[in-house]
Amino acid sequence: MAKLLHPKATAVWLVDNTTLSFKQIADFVGMHELEIQGIADGDVATGVKGFDPVANSQLTQEEIDAAEKNPLLKLKLKFNAAAAGEEKRRGPRYTPLSKRQDRPASILWLVKFHPELSDGQVSKLVGTTKPTIQAIRERTHWNIANIQPIDPVALGLCKQSELDAVVQKAAAKKAADGSVMSDDERRKLVSTEQSLDMEAEPRIPSAIEGLETFSLTDNDTNDEDDPSKSDYSDADSFFNLPGSDTDEDEQP
Q1: What one-character-per-residue DSSP string does 137-181 give?
Q2: pLDDT in tens, 10-30
Q3: Region Disordered: start and end of each range (predicted)?
Q4: Quick check: 20 and 39 in contact, CB under 8 A?
Q5: Do 122 and 57 share a domain, yes or no?
């Protein structure tokens, strides 16, 4: 769908040079009717130079004349054959100059945490080339020692919804192949929202593996045979410790 060029400047020109109603102008330029009234009162778009839609092939004079005679008639943007298919143009994602230096860090993050993504998917997400992705995968990039992985969403190179869509597509392809995924792989292949909603699987720390049946007490030991487990609840038995000879301390 073709879009109007300079809508506010076009509205200024139509207000100054035609007798169209505020609603007709507002519908044509995509603004509110009160804004058009503000332009007519001089409160809005002060200093904006009018943009002639007739001279720039956006309207015809015949259509303006017909709309002036009929307040219910809506203006239609003139068809421009040169603009047909302009929005369907395909190509690499444009990355601003200020963010191009951040692309290697985002590529390394995607390669590290989502190795299932193809080079084409990574290229579309961050707007880079396949040789650059391959160099980072193989760690042959000239600056690989100084590159730190950073989330491309945090860098503003792509949207979270775009990243989630690519990850979900990779998850569907992984499921279609029928391969068994580990828990870590399963979390990588789902979107961020789904991963946060998952319940963590109980795991035993590696430091205490094999000690699940460890007990501080030995059930096979007989408490009666162990002198250290005698009853010392009263004072006399406490001072008469096992193994001590009380008769030697007594004087004749």
Answers
A1: HTT--TTGGG-----HHHHTSS-HHHHHHHHHHHHHHHHHHT---
A2: 999 999 999 999 999 999 998
A3: 174-252
A4: no
A5: no
> Rounded CA gap, 57 and 80, in Å?
8
By the 8 A CB rule, do 156 and 99 touch? yes
The model's pLDDT over 143-194, given as tens digits with 9 standing for 90+, comes to: 999 999 999 888 888 888 888 888 888 778 877 776 555 556 555 555 555 5
Q: In terms of residues, how long is the chain?
A: 252
How far apart CA 23 and CA 37 sit, in angstroms, is 9
Comparing C-alpha atoms, which of 219, 202, 124 is closest to residue 162? Answer: 124
Rounded to whole angstroms, how far apart are CA atoms 188 and 110?
11
Q: Based on the structure, what is the number of domains in the chain?
A: 2
* Residue 181 zone, left/alpha/beta (φ > 0; ψ -120 to 50; rest): beta
